[in-house]
Design goal:
Layout (H helix, E strand, L loop, with lengths): L4 E5 L4 E5 L6 E5 L4 E6 L5 E7 L1 H5 L3 H13 L15
Antiparallel strand pairs: 1-2, 2-5, 3-4, 4-5
């Protein structure tokens, strides 16, 4: 996957990165204020929202890139019903 939409809200200090995937998804908040959205069907990454981007990540972009890359190639956790996470 190589196409992303990226937007930054300077007033809120939030970075939004989304893929072109659509459909039902679930979200989970990871460490350091990153909110991940994954497809329910197969766990593929739909989007990530980075809270406090400038304050927490501006000097650690390599680590943020590594986390994004890991999420792109790893399906989300599978819940008890065989689906990845819970629907949102």
């Amino acid at each position: 996957m190589s196409d992303f939409d990226v937007a930054y809200d300077k007033n809120a200090d939030v970075l939004y990165i989304s893929t072109k995937l659509t459909g039902p998804s679930y979200t989970s908040e990871g460490e350091n204020g990153i909110v991940w959205s994954h497809q329910i069907a197969d766990g593929r990454l739909v989007s990530m929202t980075v809270l406090n981007f400038n304050a927490q990540w501006q000097n650690r972009l390599a680590l943020l890139t590594e986390q994004l890359t890991q999420q792109l190639y790893a399906p989300g956790p599978v819940g008890p019903m065989g689906h990845a996470g819970s629907a949102n």
